[in-house]
Amino acid sequence: MADYREAPLASRPKTLDPNEYFNLSKEYRRAEEDRAAIRASLKMQYQTQLNNPHRKALIEDPALTRWVHARANPYLYFKPTFKTSLVGLLFGVVPLFGLYYIFKAHRDRKEAQIKAGTLDRKFSLSS
Amino acid sequence: MAGVGFRRWAQALSKGKGSGISALLSGSRAASGSSKDTVLGPPPKSPEEMAAAAKKYNLRLEDYAPYPDKGEGFGDYPKLPDRSQAERDPWYKWDHPDLRRNWGEPMHWDFDMYIRNRVDTSPSPVPWSTMCKQLFGFIGFMLFMFYLGETFRSYQPVAPKQYPYKNLYLEKGGDPEKQPEEVKNYEI
């Protein structure tokens, strides 16, 4: 595993991360400690609420609320730029009209073939 | 979200000091509902805004990085590493073990995609290039062999079925009076 290489859908596992073994700098360790402190305070908040014998309600998670709000309001800070308008056109307008014309043309061609008697029903089992 | 707004509007109408329209226009609203801490904010620009957003999302200031402001609607939501929940330690005592997440931990924008039932970014046992080569190599080889088999067909020799009684002359509606020609279905 010394020659493990990352790929877009395959990340490096934490146990193969060289930082875990060779990075003993104070800044890196201080950063890890700060993250652990945040994690510990959140854990304590959760555990006090969880083990509270008088609690009857659900424990609401503000991170979850924020995520739901963010995902449910995509147009709060939306700005029509070149890129966003292009994406909107490509995914919203082009398939609408494109598919209409494709289906219409295909069906009209099939109808003309049926009327002329030249339709080749390759997979028909009944004839 | 729309339901909450409608309810608040109906409540304002019924409980408002004025009647009808003036209650709506007075700008008074209930104290319940989402606070500023659970609402998506605008994309942060100044260091103070960045610090406030980092505190809001329970991240260190150094760890907090908003999405680049390209008008795509992310606001100040943090850009977390694109790692699925399947990569997290299965033996740690998570608060929500099935989601491998702790309470209050900032969720990835695509969290619902990165749950363990869906997209998995965990390291593959064999390098990606090897997997691609093996899969597409096998498929390509099989396609090529089938193409060769279609071009150079090889099967047991066959011939049309030979029928007795002069190729079933009478059964096929031949005249019983007439004598049909001799039919030889063999070769010596």
Topology of this protein?
The complex is a heterodimer of chains A (127) and B (188).
Chain A: H1 19-22, H2 26-50, H3 62-72, H4 82-116
Chain B: H1 2-15, H2 21-25, H3 47-56, H4 128-151, H5 164-168
Subunit structure (chain B): Complex I is composed of 45 different subunits.
Family (chain B): Belongs to the complex I NDUFB8 subunit family.
Region (Disordered) (chain B): 14-52
Count of helical stretches of chain B:
5
Number of strands of chain B: 0
Class computed from helices, strands and strand pairing of chain B: mainly alpha
Give the topology string of chain A: H per helix, E per strand: HHHH
Question: Helix content range of the residues of chain A, please?
Answer: 55-70%
Number of strands of chain A: 0
Question: What is the overall silhouette of chain A?
Answer: elongated
Assembly state of the chains shown = heterodimer
Specify the number of helices of chain A: 4
What is the count of distinct domains of chain A? 2
* Average pLDDT score of chain B: 83
Q: Tell me what portion of residues of chain A adopts beta-strand conformation.
A: under 5%
Shape of chain B: elongated
Beta-strand percentage of chain B?
A: under 5%
> Main beta sheet of chain B: strand number and arrangement?
none
List segments of chain A where confidence is low: pLDDT < 50 over at least 5 consecutive residues.
none
Largest interface: A-B, 43 and 40 residues
